[in-house]
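Design request, C-alpha cells follow.
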C-alpha cells in the first residue's frame, strides 16, 4: 500500500476541479468516455478503479448495467456516496478497495477502466471476463515537464523508465491479446495564477511524496513562489497560463 499517497488522498477527500478555471486544447482524438461507450452496452458490468469522489464516473461514464467504483481512500468513497445522491438514476456502487489487492472473483467484469490511477495489469486480467476490455488513461513522466524541470522535482520526475512503458509491458505480459497504445498531448490554459496554483496544490504534479510539513507531520505540497512566478511569466498566452500535459491511453482486450 502507498501509505504517503493514501494519506494525501484522505486529506483531499474529493477529486473535484470545478472551481479551477481553465480551458483545454487536445492534439489527439482520444476520448476516454467515448471509448467506454464504444465497448459497453446496457447490460455491461464495469469497474472504475481509483474512482476518487466518483465525480467523473457519475457525470461521464455512460449508462451501463452497473458501475462499481473503487478507491483505497475511505474519505473518497464517502464523498462518492454523497455525490451519488445527485444522480439518483445512475446504477453505481462505490466500495473501498486497493487497486493492488482486488478481491473480486475472477472473470466478473466486462470492462475495467482506470483514469489517472495505479493499476496491476495481471489482477485486472483476472477479474475481466473473456474478451473484456481494459481502458487506461495515465499521466506520463513528461507531463508538465517544463514545470518539473524548473522545480527539479515532481511526479515520476526521476523515474528511469516512464510509467506508460511499464504499464504497457505489464499489460502485454498479463496476457491481453489486443493492445493499443497512444500518447496524448494536451494544452491547458489557466485563467489566473491562482487557478494554476490551486491545481498544483491539489494534484501530485510537483510532488514526489517526500515533503512533510514539519509542524504537524501532515503531507503538504510547498510551491516556491519565485519559481512559480518564473513559470507563470514565461508561459502567459492569449488563452491563459499554458501547461503542457502528456498523458497516455491504453485499450486492451482479454
Ligand atoms: C488522480 S485521482 C483520479 C480520480 C478519478 N479516476 C478521476 O479520473 O477523476 C487518483 C485516485 O486514485 C486513488 N488511488 C491511488 N492509489 C490507489 C490504490 N492503490 N488503490 C485504489 N485507489 C487508489 C486515489 O485515492 C485517488 O482517488
Amino acid at each position: 500500500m502507498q501509505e504517503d499517497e493514501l494519506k494525501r488522498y484522505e486529506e483531499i477527500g474529493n477529486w473535484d476541479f470545478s472551481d479551477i478555471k481553465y480551458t483545454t486544447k487536445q492534439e489527439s482524438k482520444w476520448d476516454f468516455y467515448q471509448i467506454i461507450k464504444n465497448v459497453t452496452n446496457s447490460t455491461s458490468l464495469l469497474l472504475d478503479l481509483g474512482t476518487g469522489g466518483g465525480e467523473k464516473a457519475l457525470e461521464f461514464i455512460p449508462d451501463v448495467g452497473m458501475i462499481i467504483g473503487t478507491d483505497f481512500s475511505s474519505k473518497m468513497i464517502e464523498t462518492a456516496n454523497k455525490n451519488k445522491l445527485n444522480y439518483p438514476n445512475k446504477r453505481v456502487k462505490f466500495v473501498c478497495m486497493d487497486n493492488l489487492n482486488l478481491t473480486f472473483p475472477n472473470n466478473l467484469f466486462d470492462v475495467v477502466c482506470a483514469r489517472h490511477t495505479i493499476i496491476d495489469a495481471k489482477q485486472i486480467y483476472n477479474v475481466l471476463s473473456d474478451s473484456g476490455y481494459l481502458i487506461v488513461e495515465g499521466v506520463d513522466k513528461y507531463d508538465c515537464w517544463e514545470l518539473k524541470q524548473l522545480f527539479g522535482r515532481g511526479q515520476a520526475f526521476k523515474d528511469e523508465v516512464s510509467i506508460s512503458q511499464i504499464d504497457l509491458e505489464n499489460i502485454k505480459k498479463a496476457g491481453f491479446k489486443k493492445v493499443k497504445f497512444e500518447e496524448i498531448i494536451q494544452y491547458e490554459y489557466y485563467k489566473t495564477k491562482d487557478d494554476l496554483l490551486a491545481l498544483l496544490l491539489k494534484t501530485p504534479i510537483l510532488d514526489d511524496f517526500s515533503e512533510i510539513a514539519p509542524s504537524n507531520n501532515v503531507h503538504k505540497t510547498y510551491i516556491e513562489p519565485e519559481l512559480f512566478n518564473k513559470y507563470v511569466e514565461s508561459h502567459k498566452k492569449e488563452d491563459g497560463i499554458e501547461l503542457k500535459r502528456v498523458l497516455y491511453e491504453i485499450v486492451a482486450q482479454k
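Comment from the thread starter after seeing the answer: thanks! The beta strands are 22-26, 45-49, 66-71, 92-96, 109-115, 128-139, 178-190, 236-237, 240-253.
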